[in-house]
Write a structure and sequence with these properties.
- The protein has helices at about 10-25, 30-45, 75-95, 105-120, 135-140, 155-160, 185-190, 200-215, 225-240, 260-270, 285-290, 305-310, 350-360, 360-370, 380, 385-390, 395-405, 415-430, 435-450, and strands at about 55-60, 100, 125-130, 160-165, 165, 170-175, 180, 220, 295-300, 315-320, 330-335, 340, 405.
- It is of the alpha/beta class.
- Helix content is about 45%, strand content about 10%.
- It is built from 19 helices and 13 strands.
- Residues about 1-50 have low confidence and may be disordered.
């Protein structure tokens, strides 16, 4: 253990702190100064004599880039309208501005790319992400977002954007989990396609019956177990029993609890009715295409599946996640929650904050939701009846949001990536390698506690 190399992200974090301390003593404009000058510049016309700038954005506001040859002309046109809206709104304050959208990945890849760029002193002006905003805010890498920009955004999605009660990002879209079910597969197995399971025992019973009827041609369920995607889909079942990965303080590890063990026991039993080898898949597309194409009946899905499944001609339905038969309640996790933030080292604070203002606006989120079937975080956009009229299945997700306790995954106060690795090892060992639940959770608990010391 003494000779083990420190993980790359840990080393990068140490270097980043040093880099930011240097940056803070330089002439970089702080967030508060940039935010304050945004309104004054607009009122005095001080931007009129400025040369047009290029705002570098790591992320794409639409679900497809406008030159994506795999998309239909309609999808590309819809994407173009989103980009055009942002461009026209930015032009109102910054004539001639250019926005350079760059794909730097997602999840851990994006996190590492951001860390390296900040260390090098050449970060983007704006980026997107999902689960690491408090980590970067704690490292003083992000600009604080003025309260008026985020005032219409729902509390749940914005919980992941906060540190010490302050906002460091805005939620551009959000989501929550449902049970997705293939009605055709249920019908083949002799089940009522309009009556999905409501409890854990019903789900296991239906899943087993479908697998038996399918005789290797189709199966009951898919269960995602690998990495972050697996964690997202496991946590709701823990929360249904009152469990979670941390206590409410966010710094006390609670991996090894009876509630978590019971949830994993349920998922382990459900995994017996999945396609052979599918629990080991870390390709989300391949996994859920099994439901879309009639190879499995049930899966845990977010609102992005509505368009995805429809594109693949799936006769799919959506319902609240089944709950424990005893001692449980409806609960969920905020997922697909795209957060946009400004990097503190950016020299274009005014422009970056205006970009965030547009992403948070009712007009943008309404437009984006109507063309993508994604859930708006803006409460005014979410209340638009035209959205449900255009995408009826979103009504199910709206009902879930209204009736289930939900929050983001926890953000660990120290060594986040390594703590997650400890949890991934446990969840995958239990659900893929059939390791004992109690021993796996105890090992993960001990490892995580050591990392937080």
């Amino acid at each position: 253990m003494k000779n083990r190399k420190k993980p790359l992200f840990f080393s990068l974090s140490i270097l980043l702190i040093a880099a930011l301390m240097t940056a803070c003593s330089s002439n970089n404009t702080p967030a508060s100064s940039g935010a304050a000058s945004a309104s004054s510049s607009a009122n005095t016309g001080s931007n009129a004599n400025k040369e047009p700038i290029t705002l570098t954005v790591w992320g794409v506001p639409s679900l497809t880039t406008i030159n994506d040859t795999t998309k239909t002309p309609e999808e590309i046109a819809n994407s173009q309208s989103v980009y055009d809206f942002i461009q026209s709104e930015m032009e109102k304050k910054f004539p001639g501005i250019k926005i350079d959208y760059v794909d730097k990945g997602w999840g851990d890849d994006l996190r590492q790319n951001l860390m390296i760029s900040v260390m090098a002193g050449n970060p983007p002006d704006v980026s997107w992400g999902e689960d690491f905003i408090p980590e970067f805010a704690r490292l003083n890498a992000l600009s604080e977002v003025p309260s008026d920009i985020a005032k219409d955004l729902a509390e749940g999605p914005m919980a992941a954007a906060k540190l010490d009660g302050k906002d460091y990002a805005v939620s551009g879209m959000t989501g929550i989990f449902s049970l997705m079910y293939n009605k055709d597969v249920m019908t083949k197995a002799g089940l009522d396609p309009n009556t999905p399971p409501k409890t854990w025992s019903e789900w296991i019973d239906m899943s087993n019956k479908i697998t038996a009827a399918g005789k290797g041609e189709y199966f009951g369920s898919v269960v995602q177990t690998a990495g972050l995607g697996g964690a997202f889909r496991i946590v709701p079942f823990m929360r249904q029993l009152g469990g979670d990965l941390t206590a409410s303080d966010g710094s006390t590890i609670t991996f090894d609890t009876p509630e978590n063990a019971k949830a994993l026991e349920f998922l382990k039993e459900l995994s017996k009715s999945t396609p052979t080898g599918s629990t080991a898949l870390n390709d989300e597309g391949a996994l859920y295409n099994m439901v879309h194409h009639g190879k499995a009946a049930f899966g845990v899905a977010g609102p992005w599946h509505i368009t995805w499944a429809a594109t693949e001609k799936c006769n799919c339905g959506y319902a609240p996640l089944p709950v424990p038969d005893e001692g449980g309640k409806r609960a969920n996790v905020i997922v697909g929650n795209t957060l946009w933030f400004a990097l503190k080292q950016s020299k274009h604070q005014e422009e970056a904050m205006e970009f965030l203002r547009i992403i948070a606006s009712e007009q943008y989120q309404e437009k984006f939701a109507l063309i993508s079937s994604r859930m708006p975080s803006n409460k005014l956009a979410a209340a638009n009846p035209e959205l449900i009229k255009a995408v009826p299945d979103l009504a199910v997700f709206g009902e879930i949001v209204a009736n289930e306790e939900a929050g983001p995954l926890p953000v660990f106060t120290k060594n986040g990536p390594k703590v997650w690795e400890a949890w991934y090892k446990a969840q995958e060992g239990i659900l893929i390698a059939d390791k004992p639940i109690a021993a796996s959770l105890a090992e993960a608990q001990k490892t995580a506690e050591g990392l937080l010391k």
